[in-house]
Amino acid sequence: MRAAVLHEIGQDKLDVLDDVEATGFGPGKVKLRVRATGLCHSDLSAMSGVLPQPAPFVPGHEGAGEVIEVGDGVTSLKQGDRVLMCWLPACGTCPSCRRGQTQLCLAGFMNAGTPNFRRPGGDVFGFAGTGTFAEEVVVAAGCAVPIPNDVPYEIAALIGCGVTTGLGAAINTAKVAAGSSVAVIGCGGVGISTIQGARVQGAAQIVAVDPVASRRAAALTFGATEAVSPEEFADAKQRVTAGEGFDYVFEVVGRSATARTAYENTRRGGTLCVVGAGAMDDFFQVNMFELFFDEKRILPSLYGGGDVLRSYERAIALWRAGRIDLESLITHRVQLAGINDALDQMRTGEALRTCIEI
């Protein structure tokens, strides 16, 4: 079968090959035919080494498709079921799951260390234990979540990561209050979803901050009340909040410099929500006096900060009701053979989300 493979960390191009085999099928597993997958910035971060991932590997973790085969012991799925991919499934038994913090379950991360593809030259890993830039993939049954028939594969794929992450940051983690002021730094697919989450929650002002003009323009169509470049952010803070700072600031880039900017533009007693996935050697610093005196809440948000199965259902319900726009998030579509074009579109900021049709 065909799959896009990164041979070594640090390479900026993927090699689309036709000699890849999905492996690991057995009890408790399902084999999926991938129909659509989104390109998430985390895929780029894994390719560059910002996020740890063994190589060679097949990137992609934001996917949807149908069940081809079901392993022994799997009773929740059957051949032909439409599913989206959950790259962070909950085991249901660990301390985090028992506390209701299923997004902190580490069971899914254990999958990342087991190869789930093979080529004539040896084993190949799947990013985050999945690897959706392939025609087929074998995953644990908990990674395959059934979706209703009226949800297109490309929409389901986005819900599998970016949409759930952004909506959940605003709704689950920060719990944006109605009438509040919000700033979102970084307006790719996740940032736009954060904006939509803040709008659903009833925020009065939503300022989108991004260096790319097309993304700023897009943010306005998704619910931002204004959109500014990073250089204009200080003026926006003064104009919108009379210099006090925003009630909520979301950092959706994954860098300490933008996290520091977000902190400085959060009002005293306000909330900084860190959504972007950053590097292990990039340190965010605050001094002990400001941490104590300003009483700003610093809230990281992993995969939307809540039960992902409930978050999927909520995203579908909001989409059906017309409360969020997911179709317009997909600004580009390519076939698997055009995956490197999609990578370039994300690097330049041209694309919000590219759908790879497989």
Largest sheet: 7 strands, mixed
Contiguous helical run count? 12
Number of strands: 19
Relative helix content: 25-40%
Q: Report the radius of gyration as a whole number of Å.
A: 20 Å
Walk me through this protein's architecture.
The model has no long low-confidence stretch (mean pLDDT 96). The strands form four sheets. Strands 4, 6, 7, 10, 11, 18 and 19 form a seven-stranded mixed beta sheet that branches. The chain is globular, with a radius of gyration of 20 Å. The N and C termini lie close together (11 Å). Helices cover 30% and strands 26% of the residues. The protein contains twelve helices and 19 strands. The chain is of the alpha/beta class and 358 residues long.
Please summarize what this structure is.
It contains twelve helices and 19 strands. The chain is α/β, with parallel strands linked by helices and 358 residues long.
